[in-house]
Amino acid sequence: MRWTVKHGINLSLLNWNGNLLSVTLPEEPKSGGLKIKQYQKYLDDSFRSKIATKIIQIKVNHSQNLLEQLSRYYNINYPKIKQSFEKERKWLEPRSKEIYSDLMTYEGRIAGIYLENLTAIFNQLNPEFNFTGRKNKANSRNYNASDEINALLNYGYAVLESEIRKAINGIGLDYSIGFLHEINQSRTPLVYDIQELFRWMIDISVIQLLEEKKIKKSDFIITENYHTRLGEDVAKKLIEKINSNFNSKYNYKNQKNYSYQVILQDNIQQLSNFISDKKK
Predict the structure, then answer these.
(1) How far apart are CA 117 and CA 59, in angstroms?
(2) pLDDT at residue 157 tops 80
(3) What does the pLDDT look like over 238-258, one tens digit per residue?
(4) Mean pLDDT for the chain?
């Protein structure tokens, strides 16, 4: 651990069901000015609403784009999906001032469309896993996975969370103050905000892993409480897939190609510049 910290390597500790226990973070910038600006902007309803709305818009665009791409290979009805997305956009547009409850209602309805089709794809790929969705009565936060797909998603989202926490800390923002997600004790709302922009990367990583047909039910462990956890080999395969996707190069800002690792950091830097009134 001392060696990883010395060389600036992020070390994330997860428990078996995908909970992020701890992260070794880079040293924070010394200036507290950015955090003061962040607190001020959080208290400005107009400013907060602007950021929250943008996060939702980008998440919705990513979700629709991913489903459009997947419809080329899987049996999902993209014309119907597109129609549903447009209908939901029209539902939100007439509101002159976005209210957080409206935004979250809108996001929830869009997420329902997205997950319904993602569920169909997961079941086409591996019917044996019998995925029914992200919500269950036992645990609405989905930490204790009831099936293999939820176990994969939980673990992947925890890996993503650790990367975002590292980037936020390195820039000097306070991840306990978000703009879309509300402040709660022992939570990291700003991390959850940024996660919304990149969750699709985890979803596609899980799909790609299933496409390889290299994992099966016996690769997972069922606990005495009937929760599903990843076996060591499955966890390793998933991390490798996520790592590969985040380090692949993509065209960004119509300039040259960058990895999503760099794009993630740049998005948080842009948010920082916006909060600091350095950019519009």
Answers:
(1) 16
(2) yes
(3) 999 999 999 999 888 888 899
(4) 87
Q: Is 116 in contact with 134 (CB distance < 8 Å)?
A: no
Question: 137: Cβ–Cβ under 8 A, 6 or more apart, which residues?
Answer: none
pLDDT tens profile 66-82 = 999 999 999 999 999 99
Work out the average pLDDT over 41-63: 91
Closest residue by Cα to residue 19 from 142, 133, 181: 142
> Burial letters for 237-258: b for 16+ Cβ neighbours within 10 Å, e otherwise?
bbbebbeebbeeeeeeeeeeeb
- DSSP for 210-258, please give it: HHTT---GGGEEE-TTS-EEE-HHHHHHHHHHHHHHHHSEEE-TTSSEE
Strands 11-14 and 228-230: unpaired
Q: Whole-angstrom Cα distance, residue 67 to residue 278?
A: 35
